[in-house]
Amino acid sequence: MPAKLSVNLNAIAMLRNRRDLPWPSVTGLGEIALAAGASGLTVHPRPDQRHIRFSDLAPIRALIDDLYPQAEFNMEGYPNSEFLDLVDQHQPDQVTLVPDDPAQATSDHGWDFRKNHVLLGTVVGRLKTKGFRVSLFADGDPDGEALKIASETGADRIELYTGPYGGCYDDPERSIAILDDLGWTAELAAELGLGVNAGHDLTVANLPPLAARIPGLAEVSIGHGLTADALQYGMDETVRRFCRACGQTI
Which residues are catalytic? Predict the structure, then answer.
């Protein structure tokens, strides 16, 4: 089955936040994305609200519930008490835990599972008790021991950090090497019973090789590249292009 596409709305929110005005509309463009075939919407409500604002969460949840109940809401963030309270309040279908420092511009690495196994075990246990699907941000490094620790937390999935893969768009040889690492990591995760998502700097050009190397890829979460393309092609056509790049027939 082709990977599902979850549209990350953070870049749209960042553009809106440049002015004290309600456009571009985060929910409006989210609705266009879902109507065009996206399977879900992703947000990362950082503590400083420089992208998604906490006030965006209820309207996004309502959009999905009221108009696209088959779609999924994915909330990602560092598991501090504030983020976990937002999760409890807005009931996403999936919670993606990332090791971001509040000062980071964007997610740029996966969890150190050895160092954070107690924290993640506690948080994943809390989230699973409440019925959430949980995904853990992971580097594309085929480290079986680290992935075993990730699986022992009780998480359902990992999300492969594909930033290095997207970053070598002008270096085909390095791209192939990194893709192979991502593929081996996905295979190890599958052997441990973990589903595999992926996200960061994915494009229409680099998605098909990723999907071919990881045929069991469940979901991709894409924001920056998709939003950039939407400036050229429009949101609806861009979503269809990304869905086709995932292998979907649209």
Answer: 44, 76, 200
Query: Could you tell me the two tokens for 31?
Result: 């609705």
pTM across the whole model: 0.96
pLDDT digits (tens, 9 = 90+) for 79-93: 999 999 999 999 999
SS3 94: strand
- In terms of Cα–Cα distance, which of 38, 15, 39 is closest to 26? 15
CATH homologous superfamily of 4-245: Aldolase class I (3.20.20.70)
Handedness of CA 203, 209, 212, 213 (dihedral sign): negative
Give which of 79, 64, 86 is closest to 7, Cα–Cα.
Answer: 64
Which of 126, 93, 118 is closest to 197 using CA atoms?
Answer: 93
**Does residue 222 contact residue 8 with C-beta atoms inside 8 Å?**
yes
Domain ranges of the chain: 4-245
C-alpha to C-alpha distance for 248 and 220, rounded to whole angstroms: 12
